[in-house]
Automatic annotation (TrEMBL):
Official protein name in the record: Acyl-CoA desaturase
Keyword annotations: Membrane, Transmembrane, Transmembrane helix
Location of the Fatty acid desaturase domain: 4-220
GO cellular component entries: membrane
BP terms from Gene Ontology: lipid biosynthetic process
Transmembrane segments: 64-86, 98-116
GO molecular function: oxidoreductase activity, acting on paired donors, with oxidation of a pair of donors resulting in the reduction of molecular oxygen to two molecules of water
Species of origin: Cellulomonas rhizosphaerae
Keyword Phosphoprotein: no
A Pfam family annotated for this UniProt entry: FA_desaturase
Length: 255
């Protein structure tokens, strides 16, 4: 609560609920909220209607627009957390969350407006929120975007689900520091409570374990992962055939 609400200005309860759903069934239609259709289309399978007009124009170019759109993600994270807390859905420690979040967001805004001229304050807030959103998105996007997206009806075990639908990012300590350990995404999904420093040590063991059992273990560079994300989003936006569906998914869907 202190780190999420008081430091980052995000609702811990909302984030925990969202992230727990994602960990249980990553890249699964109807179960992983991270791939629900919104401003971006991650799969044509969960679209309720065809996107036309301005929405269609945006969807066809959503890969190229993805990183510029992240400039708004910081604001979105704050707003979504606040919205979650004021809704009637059950939230543990709601009063504490609201108090911490109000102090963080209200206090921060008051300090900025008090010490800076109004125009400069707005510019400062815009830059800060923009950088926050880009950093968060750039850290999380390489892990699953462009990996197979599966229907909720697909029967797949825990090991295959977590390994086949996740992607690691190579690059050593520099990338690990930048991504906060999320570059070891496969290990993070297999052992979600494992401290980040231990994920690096676990990676060779998991890689060898998967190789011995013929389970595809995906790892690429940070730059290549971003290229995959952009290409994938453009492909989906154009309603093209998903080139990232793994043989396991195709085989089980056909069965």
């Amino acid at each position: 609560l202190v780190i999420a609400n008081l430091y980052a200005g995000m609702s811990y309860g909302w984030w925990q609920h969202k992230h727990s759903r994602h960990h249980a069934k990553p890249n699964t239609l109807g179960a992983d909220g991270d791939i629900d259709a919104g401003a971006l289309v991650f799969s044509t399978a969960n679209l309720t209607r065809e996107r036309t007009g301005l929405a269609g124009w945006f969807a066809q170019r959503q890969g190229w627009l993805f990183f510029p759109l992240l400039l708004l993600e910081g604001l979105n994270l704050h707003v979504t957390g606040v919205r979650r807390l004021v809704q009637r859905r059950p939230v543990k420690r709601r009063a504490i969350e609201i108090s911490f979040l109000s102090l963080r967001l209200g206090g921060y805004l008051a300090v900025v407006l008090w010490f800076l001229p109004f125009g400069v304050a707005l510019a400062f807030l815009g830059v800060q929120l923009g950088l926050f959103g880009v950093y968060m998105g750039a850290s999380f996007a390489p892990n699953h975007k462009g990996m197979p997206i599966v229907p909720a009806s697909l029967k797949i075990g825990f090991l295959h689900r977590q390994v086949l639908l996740s992607r690691n990012v190579s690059g050593g300590r520099v990338v690990e520091t930048f991504m906060g350990g999320l570059n070891h995404q496969i290990e993070h999904h297999l052992f979600p409570s494992m401290p980040s420093p231990a994920l690096r040590a676990a990676a060779p063991v998991v890689r060898e374990f998967c190789a011995e059992r013929g389970i595809t273990y995906t790892e690429t560079t940070l730059g290549h992962s971003y290229a995959i994300v952009v290409r994938y989003l453009n492909e989906v936006g154009l309603a093209s055939r998903d080139p990232f569906q793994c043989p396991l998914v195709a085989q089980r869907l056909a069965a």
